[in-house]
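User: Okay, second chain of the day. Same drill as before: sequence in, structure tokens out.
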Amino acid sequence: MRLKQRASVLLGLASVAWLALSNAGVMTAYASPIIGGTNIFTLVTPAVYCGTAPAGCPSGLQAAEANFLNNSNQTFLGIVLWVVRDSAGQTVAYTSATIDVAAGQNSTAYPTLVGVVAGSYNSAIFVVSSAGVALSTSSSLSFTLTT
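Assistant: Same drill. Structure tokens below.
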């Protein structure tokens, strides 16, 4: 009986050693807490299309102007996405801009379009984290591109 116990212990130790050696190059994965929610960023004023040169927009850009407020108690880096669809509802472009906003502060983003032809468009503008987590709700922006 004692020989069987030793054999069992040795087999158990060999199994542990094999597991340790076979996983020697593997690192433990640590979960990082995902902080997000569609209330982190809110638009201060409705987004506008800069091609019509409203006050405050840089001139000559085919861009959206979106001023977002950080409602959280920490600084957030946000990626502002602007998704543009034609009258048939097909996505014709998407672009992004980044904002790095301290707690309680706001920042304006100017995601810029390139290569979109003249026409009437509907679009959505919203903020996500670098991990793709939604940080705002989606807001609509309709505009006409003349050139």
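The helical segments are 2-22.

User: Thanks, on to the next one.
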